[in-house]
Structures are given as C-alpha cells and as structure tokens.
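INTERNAL TRANSFER SHEET
From: sequence group
To: structure group
Subject: Universal stress protein

Please process the attached sequence and return the structure record in the designated field. Keep the field labels unchanged so the import script can parse them.
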Amino acid sequence: MKQILLPTDFSENSWNAIIYALELFKDEECAFHLLNAYTPAIYRLDYVIKYPEQFGLVDAVRNTSRRNLFKVVSRINSEFTKNEKHHFQTHAKFDTLLSSVRDSVKQLEIDLIVMGTKGATGAKEVLFGSNTVHIFKDVKCPVLAIPSDFTYEAPHEILFPTDLEALYKHSSLKILKEIVKLNNARLNTMHVSSGYELNEKQQRNKDKLESMFKGSAYLFHDIHTMEITHAINEFQIKHKINLLAMINNKHSFFENIFFKNTINQIGFHLNVPFLVIPTET
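Return from structure group:
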C-alpha cells in the first residue's frame, strides 16, 4: 500500500493538494496521512514556566487541530465517492511543519508528500513559500507541490528537465515511473546545454534513462544556449505540460535555482504540479 503524506493547514490551498492526490491515485491502494503541525502563536518556554496555569493553551490548540483534521476527513467523505482502496489517518503534532514532516516520513515510511505551494501568486507566476522550499531541501522524500488554483487534470504530458549529472536509480525514480505508467504519460526529458556535446558520464546517464523508461512514451529534447528557467517556461508554453518533474541533486541547476537565491527571487511561470525527487545518498 502506498503511503502518502498530506500536510494541511486547513486552507483551500492545502485542500486543493488533497483533491489532486485523491484523483491521481484513485485506482491505487493508498494510506493517506493527513498531518497538521501546530505551534500556539504565543508559545514560549519561558512563558510556560512563568505562567504554568496557561499551559493548557497547548492542549486547546491540539484539540482544535484534531477537530479540524476530522472535518477534513468528513469533507473528503462528503465530496468524493467512497473509494475502498483509500484509507485515512490523521496526525496532529505540536511541532514545526518541517520537523513534523521529516519525522513522519521516517516513522510512517512515506512514499510521497503532496502539498500546496503555499506561496505568493501572480497572474502567471508561482513563487514557492518558504515551507515548501525547506521541505524540498531538507526532506529525503519525493514532494509533489500543487499550485493553489490548479484544477485536476491527468498528467499525460510530463516535462523532466535534467543536467544528466545525477546517478539515476530505479528506487529514486520509482514514483515518476509509477505516474508515467498510471497515466500512459509521455515523458519529455529535456537537457539544456550551452552548446557543448554530452560528456561520457552524461551520455551514460542519458542511456540509463532511456533504458529505465523503455516501454513508455519517452522523448529526449536537447536544447542549446538557453537559461534553464527560460527553457522550462518556453517548453510549457509550446506544449500542453501537465506535470513538471525535477531531481534535486547537489551542485545541479536545481540547487542553483532554489537554494542560492532568496525566496522572492524564486519564480517559474508555473501553473502545473511540480514533482521534486531527491537523490539517494
């Protein structure tokens, strides 16, 4: 049974991500773990020591979290036809979101995290919120981030930009392979170069990718002399892309885009779900 973590702050943004997960895996046996991490706004250790009678505040917030999680499950049951393959568990944790997600991934053996982008949005641009980016960076689990206004559509056309520097393993690309297979999708692998030929390592990795997706609709696009974010945006405009997938490997263009800029500088003209795959260490 696939184990899927659904962090929620009870916003419509997180509800939209839940809808996507339920639709994407409607034919799969799944355990969905609804997680709410809470910290009372005025919670501080020195405050609790000085005013112990106020410590009940934590219990009150926990109870509110549990009630709201129950409401989410009730909303799922009322808005979706009952799916015997889907099972739900709720988790209310007094912790930061990043820490609770990291712990849940280990304790629950999570296969995939599905969450809202929770960032600032413009007419055509999504700026990822700090929570989402920190989870991309620090949690060793695939993350599927869903734009807040995205209406579910099956991912039949997937864009997979890569620098061909990562060591591709069946285990790390398992979730991408499953999504491709579930949706009879076409995987558009895109390599952006500055005009140089592939080196020996890149050629080996290119061949490995083609072998791993043998039997699927697989296309390789070699794009020259174009900055990576521009290449991604241009490809999305010219093709009907339903899902963007990238590998988060150290010293890659992914790291340059996301972790060497401030949050406000991070921006794709992204209006489709974004799958981030960690590399194995």
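Handover comment: The beta strands are 2-7, 30-38, 86-94, 112-116, 143-146, 157-161, 186-193, 217-224, 243-248, 274-278. The longest helix spans residues 56-79.
Transfer complete.
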